[in-house]
Design goal:
The protein has 388 residues and is an alpha+beta fold. The protein is built from 11 helices and 13 strands.
Length: 388
């Protein structure tokens, strides 16, 4: 891959790149829709991601090009930077904007990007390109950011420059991921610890429903409001700020305060899902994949029945997985309403699984899914360093 991209860089800019960096995408293994409720999430980096090739120039100018998109961007470092529309290079442009606002002094660069994270799949392609850019600039110019500061900068790019009000999980996971590890992350405090996640004779099958997700944002905001309504009802008797401050036992003692049936279902999912994250971390640390697999299925069922963020497409995938002998566990991952499901699949079954799932899904839904096979990979790092 690197040699092919180096040839592309040479063809584009007429000289060789000096460095190549990689930042992965991510999946959330378990812990869905609880990040904004004060709970724990357990993401892991995958082996798909974003490559950034660069070489300095003496023109005080930055040029962006991509293998994936035809649009190219150029700006002088002295000019005021602002979002230009919907072009892909707004993500790296935003990184420069935030670094310059911080008083850092990146110099002129020619940059070539390539990504193999499917756009809009819920695997964090935007966080991958943001952190990839930030990490590359920090390393090349020795700008002095810590890895956590790069994560926070990339989130600011998404929130302030791009205009998407995302949390910090995606940027954190792609920067801090480790091979064969998951991250047990408190999204409020950013306290985290690594969880052994050596899936041994398994791989992650990532299945993209290929369903458009236009309604996801409005439904997402609706779920946030419902959870806030649950907290307000519970505050009649107990002092809490977030649902995930409650154990299942304490929630059961006070759940009668939530009189709206829909709001009660949402809160029940959140509290139980937070418990499942704790149980999943223990199972993975002990190498107990069957228990982890059962927790994945339980998570999906809760997201389907209580939180109502699944759908026919995601349910068709998980239903097939539950009948396929080589799958240990499966669930939707991400916001829902389309996007992706993940399955813990025994190695050696990849082709058979893909063929049979594709046939079953196409028969039920009417169009094909996309299946990607990944392992749990490494966070942001430099791949090659060619000293020009």
């Amino acid at each position: 891959m690197e040699q092919h991209l180096q040839a592309q860089f040479l063809a584009k800019y007429g000289r060789e790149n000096t460095e190549t960096y990689f930042t992965p995408g991510r999946v959330n293994l378990i812990g869905e829709h609880i990040d904004y409720n004060g709970g724990l999430v357990m993401p892991a980096a995958i082996t798909m991601g974003t490559w950034v090739l660069l070489a300095p120039n003496n023109e005080n100018r930055v040029r962006f090009s991509s293998v994936n998109f035809p649009e190219e961007g150029t700006f002088d470092l002295g000019e005021t930077l602002s979002k230009t529309g919907k072009e892909w290079f707004n993500y790296p442009l935003g990184v420069f904007h935030e670094m310059l606002a911080d008083g850092r002094k990146p110099g002129g660069l020619d940059l070539l990007f390539f990504g193999n994270v499917p756009i809009g799949s819920g695997l964090s392609s935007s966080a991958s390109i943001e952190v990839a850019t930030a990490y590359a600039l920090n390393e090349h110019f020795d700008l002095g950011y810590t890895r956590l500061e790069l994560v926070q900068l990339a989130q600011r790019v998404e929130n302030k420059f791009i205009g998407v009000n995302c949390g910090i999980m995606d940027q954190f996971a792609v920067a801090f991921g480790q091979r064969d590890k998951a991250i047990l992350l408190d999204c409020d405090t950013l306290k985290h610890k690594m969880v052994d996640c050596n899936i041994g004779d398994h791989v992650l099958a990532i299945i993209n429903t290929n369903k458009p997700r236009e309604l996801a944002e409005s439904k997402y905001n609706e779920r946030v409001e419902e959870c806030q309504a649950a907290v307000k009802a519970l505050q009649q008797e107990i002092s809490i700020q977030n649902l995930c401050e409650l154990t299942a036992e304490k929630f059961a003692l006070h759940s009668h305060l939530i009189t709206d049936e829909t709001v009660l279902k949402r809160a029940t999912h959140v509290v139980r899902e937070n418990d499942r994250v704790h149980l999943a971390a223990r199972a993975l640390n002990e190498g107990d994949l069957p228990t982890f697999g059962r927790l994945m299925y339980a998570s999906h069922e809760s997201l389907k029945e209580l939180y109502e963020v699944s759908g026919a497409e995601l349910d068709a995938i998980v239903s097939f997985c539950s009948t396929y002998p080589g799958v240990t566990g499966a669930r939707m991952t991400g916001a829902g309403f389309g996007g992706c499901a993940i399955a813990l699949l025994q190695k050696g079954q990849e082709d058979d699984f893909t063929e049979k799932l594709t046939a079953a899904y196409t028969e039920n839904i009417g169009y094909k899914p996309a299946v990607y096979i990944s392992e749990i990979g490494e966070g942001s790092h430099e791949l090659v360093a060619v000293n020009a």
